[in-house]
Fold this protein.
Amino acid sequence: MQNDLSTTVETRQRLEAQLSENELVKKEFAQLTSDNTVYKLIGPVLVRQDQAEAKSNVDKRLDFIRGDIKRVEALLKDIDEKSEKKKTEIVEIQAALQQQSAAVAA
């Protein structure tokens, strides 16, 4: 469970970084005029891209990332609930063992 939690937290951090990066790109796009040229990096080459298409792609990417973040947060909540349940079970088992040990000692 700890490994799952660690992996999921790392995934969420990566998604948050991607979200921040794409929000910065969106802010930059908001400052463009119709005279500005937008390029997209495809491999080692910069290819001219339509501004409207680029803005649309960034908006779609932001929606996708936000959806992924919601999914990961739900997963984190589920892992946390399972972890708490296991902790409770362990405490109950430990208490039962202590009672048995005390009964045997008496």
User: Anything to note?
Assistant: The beta strands are 38-42, 45-49. Residues 2-105 form a domain with the Helix Hairpins fold (CATH 1.10.287.370).
